[in-house]
From TrEMBL:
Source species of the chain: Methylobacterium gnaphalii
Name the UniProt record assigns to this protein: Sarcosine oxidase subunit gamma
InterPro entries in the record: SoxG (IPR007375), TrmE/GcvT-like (IPR027266)
Highest rank taxon of the organism: Bacteria
Amino acid sequence: MSEAIASMWAPRSAWAGYAKPGRHGRTQGEAGVRLTLRDGIGLATVIVADGQTDALRALVSERYGWTLPEPGRAQLFRDRGLVWSAPGQWLAVAETREALRDLPQAFRGVAAVTDQSDGRAVVRVSGRNARTVLEKGVAVDLHPRAFQAGQTAATSIAHIGAQLWQLDDVPTYDVAVARSFAGSFWSWLTEAAAEFGYEVEQGPAH
């Protein structure tokens, strides 16, 4: 295989060509927003079979020590667990794709599992101005009275379909969009964050 062809098929970040590590936007003072690229994490859609919700709940608890989240909730521990996505549907999240490889076999007959690791782009948005930045475009109320740590929403941000979940009260959010919309979403996100100054960093390698 030629070097050119090998390079063409090399793994590529969903944010490649868009995100540049370092400080951007307003340069005075401490950056108000941190954008952490979540490349390499594992994602999989889990859709329960009719009448199998109790069986799935038991499986995720016994085999993985997870809790099956109620609507609008995310149950994660150290970046691993489940995020509710729709009725009867969840997004499994883990540090790596390999950590989710056994899900299809484990859930056979109970739920359908589809790998989404390469299909979505995920960025972690944190810092004192993170909520304000997202509120410029998100179609749900992120005020602490309405949206807190452990909650999730499948919504739109700047007219782009997205799912976000809040991890803590800093606040910190993970935002997932379809990979094909990564460039458009990044353009909006960085424009929204520029007035506060933002740091872009690569997430930890696993």
